[in-house]
Structure formats: structure tokens, C-alpha cells
Specification:
single chain, 2 domains, 14% strand, alpha/beta, UDP-galactose 4-epimerase, domain 1, 9 helices, globular, 6-stranded parallel sheet, Rossmann fold
């Protein structure tokens, strides 16, 4: 199976290419990566030429405008890039009989749950910010395109099924991605902690926003597992196990790094910003085809730390 990845230069896109390189079903040619300037979300109609040129059998759409504050400043641009462009890509894939995986976000939910449970794939989306709204537009546009092509409306995954003889759509929602090449939440926390320690001040971290820290490598492996079944169809929630606050995540990270700094928990309202994140952004994971859940986020974080430690020490890699 030839698999193409949009946004192949991004954090998840890179992890996907690496995972697909190792997958037994991708063949000797390996995966195909599409990124700027080859594929531009401001000109998504270019997808048709790429599909004709490279002839993939499946596409994983990771490309997105993920600057949530930028999306809040320009909601219409967010809608075009994350929503309408996804619809164009989905229509082109469906028309050619290709499987498509669309990567979406926990921010399609409002974050107002108070029961401590993660949002299930069948829960009604209700985004509270333009980023989440734009990603929901993309989900719906992809569903519309595949329903028009197949007569089937994609819904929450119910379990493993035989591969149908038609193009399939998977919506994969995830949350709080971290991993190489950096500039993620852990990297920002380490930088902030160094500044706080140098100033002799506590590190202030949001304590009332919750989610599932998720390794890009683990998410990539989960998507590859879905593709490998030949039946990826459905709405999936793919996150590392466990929910934690931003402050809890920072505390665990700095503890494992041996970083001595006091953490002061503050509410998200402490800082004015254009975008308002869902305070309870935890997702309830859907079963993977293997039947095994993705591992706890603490284990994924532990495996992610060696390269960060080398980077702090100035060592290569």
C-alpha cells in the first residue's frame, strides 16, 4: 500500500513517515511526503495533481494551521485552511477511491464536562474557539465528501470490521502532542523553568486545564495500525492513556529531568490570549485493532526524554 502524508515536515508528519517506513505493508518505495510548497492549504486544489502524479492508495492528512491564537485572530483563514481545504482533499481522495485519515483535535469539544470522564467519539462536538471550529468544519466536510461518494456516513468506530470494498474515511482526534523536533509544551516548560530558576522565582503553570499528553511517535504507530487493518473507517480518539493538568504535566517532566524549581499553579485566565482552550480537554480513547490501549502518557514521556537530555547537555541527536 502506498501511503501519502500531508504536512510531512511537521511534528506528526515526520513521526508518521518514520513509522510508515517500518510498516510491512508500505512496500519498498516507502511512504510519500507532501509539504509546502508542494501542497499548500491556501491552494488545496493542487491535491489533484499530486494524487495523479504519485498514485497513493491511502492519504493521511496531518497538515493544518495549528496556531490556535492565530486562528482566533483570523477565524475565516482558519476555516479555509483547516476546514474547506480538508473538504477539497477529501473530495479528491474519495473520487479516486482512496482511503483517507484526517487528523483532528480534542478542541472540537467545549471542555465543560465535570464528571471526570473523557469525551467519547460519539459525544456531540461543540467547539468554543475558532481553531476547534475550523477543525470541526474539516471533519464534516470530509464526512460529506465520503458520504457523497459511498452513500455511507462515517460515525464512531464500533469495533473491528472486514474491509469494505469502497473508499474509507477515518477521523482521528488527538490531544496535546509532544515529540521531536521540539518547540512543544515540554520544550517551552524547560525554557520557562530555566528563566524562573535564574530569577529565583516560582514557575507559574496553568492548573485548571486538563488533557491527554500524547506522543507523536505513539500516535503515528496507532495510525499505522489502523491503516494496516485495511479497515480504518470511523471516528477514533487516539491519545496516550491518562488525563493531567498542564501543571501536572510540567511537574512530571521537570521531576524526570531532575530540574529543581517550584511550580505555582495558576488559572488559565491568568494570561490574556486570543484563543480560549477547553478546560477539560480529555478524550476517552477508542480501542485500537490490536485491542491494546495506547500506553500511559507518563511512559511515553519517559521514552521521549533521552533526546531532550542530550540537547540540554549540548550533545548531538
Amino acid at each position: 500500500m502506498r501511503v501519502a502524508v500531508t504536512g510531512s515536515g511537521g511534528r506528526l508528519g515526520r513521526a508518521l513517515l518514520a513509522a510508515l517506513e517500518e510498516a510491512p505493508f508500505t512496500g519498498p518505495a516507502g511512504p510519500i511526503g507532501w509539504d509546502l510548497p508542494v501542497l499548500d492549504l491556501d491552494a488545496p486544489e493542487g491535491i489533484a495533481a499530486l494524487l495523479e502524479r504519485d498514485r497513493p492508495e491511502a492519504v493521511v492528512h496531518t497538515a493544518a494551521w495549528t496556531d490556535v491564537d492565530g486562528c482566533a485572530r483570523d477565524p475565516e483563514l482558519a476555516r479555509r485552511r483547516n476546514g474547506l481545504a480538508t473538504g477539497v482533499i477529501a473530495a479528491a481522495c474519495a473520487a479516486r477511491g482512496l482511503d483517507l485519515v484526517v487528523v483532528s483535535t480534542n478542541e472540537v469539544f467545549d471542555g465543560e464536562r465535570t464528571d471526570g470522564l473523557g469525551y467519547a467519539a460519539g459525544d456531540p462536538p461543540r467547539p468554543i474557539n475558532p481553531y476547534g471550529a475550523s477543525k470541526l468544519v474539516g471533519e464534516i466536510a470530509a464526512m460529506d465528501a465520503y458520504e457523497a461518494a459511498t452513500g455511507v456516513r462515517v460515525g464512531p468506530v464500533q469495533g473491528p470490521f472486514p474491509a469494505p470494498a469502497r473508499p474509507q474515511l477515518a477521523i482521528v482526534r488527538t490531544a496535546w502532542l509532544f515529540g521531536r523536533p521540539g518547540a512543544d509544551f515540554p520544550a517551552k516548560i524547560v525554557t520557562a523553568a530555566e528563566r524562573a530558576r535564574a530569577a529565583g522565582e516560582p514557575l507559574r503553570v496553568v492548573g485548571d486545564e486538563y488533557g491527554n499528553p500524547t506522543s507523536t511517535g505513539d500516535l503515528a504507530e496507532a495510525i499505522v495500525e489502523l491503516l494496516g487493518t485495511g479497515a480504518p473507517e470511523g471516528i477514533h480518539h487516539c491519545v496516550n492513556e491518562g488525563a493531567v493538568s498542564r501543571a501536572g504535566w510540567a511537574r512530571e517532566l521537570l521531576r524526570r529531568l531532575g530540574f529543581d524549581v517550584v511550580i505555582e499553579e495558576v488559572p488559565a485566565s491568568t494570561w490574556e490570549r486570543p484563543s480560549r482552550p477547553p478546560l477539560w480537554g480529555a478524550l476517552a480513547a477508542t480501542p485500537l485493532p490490536s485491542g491494546e490501549p495506547m500506553r500511559p502518557w507518563t511512559e511515553a514521556l519517559a521514552d521521549d526524554l533521552p533526546w531532550r537530555l542530550r540537547a540540554r547537555a549540548g550533545a548531538p541527536g
